[in-house]
Amino acid sequence: MLEKITFSFTKLYIKFAVLFIFLKKERIYGDKSLSLRKLCLLAKGFYSAHPIKYNFKKYKYSDYISDLENVKLGYSNHPYNKLLRNKLFFLFSLIITLEHQYVIA
To answer: What percent of the chain has pLDDT over 70?
Structure first.
C-alpha cells in the first residue's frame, strides 16, 4: 500500500516537474507576445520560439516529437537518471562485469 502511494506521488511529481521545466523554458526563450499561434503551439507541446524548424504546413504535429515529450524523455528512467549519466560509474561497472565473466569462465 505504501509503495502504491509513493509511486503515485512520484508520478505526480514528475508530471509537475516536466510541466514546470517546459513552461520555464518557454518563458525564458519563447515569444514575449501573446498570440493565437503561440497558444496553439503551446497546446500541442511545442515552444513558440522555434517553430520555423518544423514544417507544419507540409507535415502534421504528430509527425514530430514535441518539446514537451522531449522534456518527458529526460524523466523516463527517473530513479536511475544520475547513474545513467555518470560515465565513470558505467566504466567501472563494465570493467567489474568483464572481470567477473572472465573469473567464472
So the answer is: 82
Enter the pTM of the model: 0.64
Q: How far apart are CA 90 and CA 97, in angstroms?
A: 10
Specify whether the CB–CB gap between 42 and 64 falls below 8 A. Answer: no
Joined grid coordinates for residue 99: 572481470
Q: How far apart are CA 23 and CA 34, in angstroms?
A: 14
45: left (phi over 0), alpha (psi -120 to 50) or beta: left
First CA to last CA across the chain, in angstroms?
Answer: 43
Q: Show the cell assigned to 18.
A: 516536466
Closest CA to 65 of 78, 74, 97: 74
Contact residues for 54 (Cβ-Cβ < 8 A; gap 6+): 46, 64
Three cell numbers written together for 5: 502511494
